[in-house]
Design brief:
Strand content: 15-25%
Helix content: 40-55%
Number of strands: 9
Strand order of the largest sheet: 1-2-3-5-4-6-7-8-9
Oligomer: single chain
Shape: globular
Number of helices: 15
Distance between the termini: 40 Å
């Protein structure tokens, strides 16, 4: 298989944008039960307003240009095309860092932190804080599609990321991620510790583990209760995408309003105050315009059918906990499976930290990797 890295530029055909607007203009909204709240799902009024903005005001071309302002490439690894942004710092000694998104995110999550991380002197930092950034789309997501095979577990993705960084000539590098990106980054540090200097995550699930639970305080036990609520009340999407992702995708692939509701719900529930509306719509547009509702959901199926308790990672790990994330980790449990050398707690922000709190996110990434350089 060729190891060639091909230049890539996003250029969605106008016919695709026209089709999106035409479909949105014909949206049939559901009739919802009077008096029912958002605990039953997305309110029809919220979705109507967001869909109308998407159809009439939102400018994909402007946001496409913003993405295209950063160098992008595609390369084939393990039979799969992998799309990625590769933004090198003006600082020649910058630390290589691979940033990985999750679901329902995309490379759009990182747009507001690319500048501060690659060019810190222009954003109030020091030259030692600089990073060369590699920002891939997960297999089956965005322009890393279509999937050419099943079996893209977190381990397989991590091995692809190791191959990507080697192909780019990075012998020592860091990894950062949230949501699925956290699992991929952590697995990357576990399987390739001779090359990964450290792993920073802004999402980490910790599970009750033997006698370690007995000594937990009230706050930590409340965090475990949050995990139970997630797997119950908040986990409907998880159950569907882990068991019948293809069936769900027929609706999401045919209805942009359906795709919008499926993703917008998570940005409403998993954040403190939501995110910029056009950032959200750019993210949703990537799913719609690439028709990846099905392929992106497959990561849930793969995880559910390959899951086991995490093996211990020897790689130095930093954890940033944002107060409004839907699940927050317990440090005592995290230390059973990860080599924790850095732990930060933030009073604001939620699941999509790089979008919600870019300054705090950037500062914590700098602080963690700064420790590893000292």
């Amino acid at each position: 298989m060729s190891e060639k890295i091909r230049d890539f530029r996003i250029d969605i055909p106008q016919a695709g944008l026209d089709d999106l607007r035409e479909r949105l203009s014909r949206t049939r909204l559901p009739v919802q039960t009077p008096g029912a709240g958002p605990e039953r799902g997305v309110p029809v009024g919220d979705l109507r307003e967001l869909a109308e903005h998407w159809a009439t005001t939102y400018d994909w071309r402007a946001h496409e240009a913003e993405l295209n302002a950063h160098p992008q490439h595609v390369t084939t690894i393990d039979g799969q095309d992998i799309h990625f942004l590769h933004v090198r710092s003006p600082e020649p000694d910058a630390t290589p860092l691979i940033l990985t998104h999750g679901w329902p995110g995309s490379v759009v999550e990182f747009l507001d932190v690319i500048g501060p991380l690659t060019d810190p002197k222009a954003h109030g930092g020091e030259s030692a804080d600089a990073f060369h950034l590699v920002i891939p789309s997960l297999p089956g997501f965005g322009f890393s599609a279509p999937l050419t095979s099943a079996g893209w577990t977190l381990n397989r993705i991590a091995r692809a990321w190791a191959a990507l960084m080697a192909r780019l000539g990075y012998d020592r590098y860091g990894a950062q991620g949230g949501d699925w990106g956290s699992g991929v980054s952590r697995e990357l540090g576990r399987i390739d510790p001779e090359h990964v200097i450290g792993v920073h995550v802004n999402y980490l699930m910790t599970f009750p583990h033997g006698e370690a639970v007995d000594g937990l305080g009230e706050e930590d036990r409340a965090r475990l209760d949050g995990l139970e609520r997630y797997t119950g009340e908040l986990g409907g999407y998880l159950a569907i995408q882990s068991t019948r992702p293809r069936t769900l995708a027929f609706g999401l692939a045919d209805s942009p309003a359906g795709q919008l509701a499926w993703i917008a719900e998570k940005f409403a529930e998993w954040t403190e105050d939501g995110v910029d509306r056009d950032r959200l719509l750019t993210n949703v547009s990537l799913y719609w315009l690439t028709n990846t509702a099905d392929s992106a959901a497959q990561i849930y199926w793969e995880f559910a059918h390959a899951w086991s308790m995490p093996e211990r990672s020897p790689t130095p790990t930093g954890v940033a906990v944002f107060a409004h994330d839907y699940v927050k980790p317990v440090r005592a449990l995290a230390e059973l499976t990860d080599t924790i050398v850095h732990w930060s707690e933030f009073g604001h922000g939620g699941h999509f930290a790089a979008m919600e709190q870019p300054e705090a996110f950037t500062g914590d990434v700098r602080a963690f990797f700064g420790k590893l350089r000292d």
